[in-house]
Amino acid sequence: MELPFIVATLTRRGLLAPGRPIRVASQLNALRTWGWSLAGELRQAAARDPDRIAIIDDQGTELTYADLLERSLRLARALRAGLGVAAGDRIGVFGRNHPGLVETIVAATLLGADAVLINTGLSPAQLTTVAEEQRLRVLVHDDEFAERLLGLPADLHRVDERAREDLIRTALPGQLDPPDRDGRIIVLTSGTTGTPKGARRPTPTGFGPLVAIIDRIPLHVRDRVMIAAPVFHTWGYAALQVCLALRATIVLHRRFDPAATLDALVRHRCQALFAVPVMLQRLMEVPPPDPRPPLKIVAVSGSALPGGLPSAFMDRYGDVLYNLYGSTEASWASIAVPADLRQAPTTAGRPPHGTRLAILDDDGRPVPTGQVGRVFVGNEMLFEGYTSGADRERHDGLLDTGDLGRLDADGRLFVDGRADDMIVSGGENVFPAEVEHLLAQLPQVREAAVVGVPDPEYGQRLAAFLGLYPGETLDADAVREYVRHYLARFSVPRDVVFVKYLPRNATGKVLTGELRDYITG
């Protein structure tokens, strides 16, 4: 990424504003010594703004940047001295959004250990498999998950919330030098269809990744930001990285509740909210507060935005919505700004500066504008491969996202769904996402999911699952006629099932396997 662009963006966002010389020097030295790991980001923030509030939790506890760094250092020293954690070891982090989660991740990176971020929705069997496959040395977990740990290996050190506090309180003094190796962040794939895989995240080597995001999503130094997206998820973790780099005040709640979220946004005067799309749907189901939160940015990622949601949300809260399309493996591919979402609500936007995006056919050749192909992306933060040693297909430095999509004449990306979600019905290629977006625009529909299921005559057929707003009704035949009016005959769902809620994992992704079982099981 070009130096003039980096400097211009950092200046616009306030990162190059003058400060006390001794603090600026200490900040730069922290980055020079510790790099752009989470430990380095926290150290530079504490050096420049030690007394600024770093985190506010849902109990009202406030930690300054100096507090957060000191607690993380003490935990790191205690893990090294008491449990023998060293560079290259792996620490499982199994918790919701709260300061202890952040302290644990930072402590791991301070030691050069790998932090494995574990989805709180995993079953005991999945958790056991993850612990074994990731070769965890220590598991730091929230108390509420204790019962899920019963099947874990006996030699795995377990640290609950009280034990973590004891480690911090009793840590002996000592020096922590930069480790010989960078601790990696290992994010687990969503695991909606089986045991999740561990994806190794690279450590940034400069300002490029931060600049790519904040150029398109206009966050500023010292903003007040609520991270509602789970920090164990790629999007929530990315939000944490950005916030530490910007020396933001971060608001964390262990559980997402729409009314409590809106209250916190107002009470803490948050200018930004990081969320996943289903959270926006839930926010739309409760009355807006008076006064409205002072939001300038609502940044979402993690799954597709339902067709009617962007316009409805912005009609209520203003043109503040930003949608980042990416994945655990690819980090980011494109970002849709409010103007994009007003013009084309289903777009995934355009690639940010320094990102390459290509739509390729099965032979790796570019397809014409408007034609569906495989989405490939290149940026500074492509994952380093799965911890199993496997990788994804790559072409000329571009990574296969596993999605199918197309570009319009203005360069905007539209994602048609996962390549393995596309079905062939009676010889026709059918994209469930296209039908989902259409059904989501019905005023009675709160949420919609469309999946392919086996069919003895056509090979596969579509099944639609609809959650309606309270008090609303719809007729299955009317739903089919509605789809028939807008799409081809083979896109009409044969099965239309009304449900109270769609089954989702902890990051809000629909569990399509459970929906298929409803039809086939």
From TrEMBL:
GO MF assignments: medium-chain fatty acid-CoA ligase activity
InterPro entries in the cross-refs: AMP-bd_C (IPR025110), AMP-bd_C_sf (IPR045851), AMP-binding_CS (IPR020845), AMP-dep_synth/lig_dom (IPR000873), ANL_N_sf (IPR042099)
Top-level taxonomic group: Bacteria
Every AMP-dependent synthetase/ligase domain range: 43-386
The AMP-binding enzyme C-terminal domain, residue ranges: 434-509
Keyword Coiled coil: no
Tagged with keyword Signal: no
SUPFAM superfamilies, alphabetized: Acetyl-CoA synthetase-like
Keywords, comma-separated and alphabetical: Ligase
Signal peptide as annotated in the record: none
Listed Pfam families: AMP-binding, AMP-binding_C
PANTHER family attached to this UniProt entry: ACYL-COA SYNTHETASE (PTHR43201), MEDIUM-CHAIN ACYL-COA LIGASE ACSF2, MITOCHONDRIAL (PTHR43201:SF5)
Family as reported in the entry's similarity comment: Belongs to the ATP-dependent AMP-binding enzyme family.
Protein name, entry field: Acyl-CoA synthetase
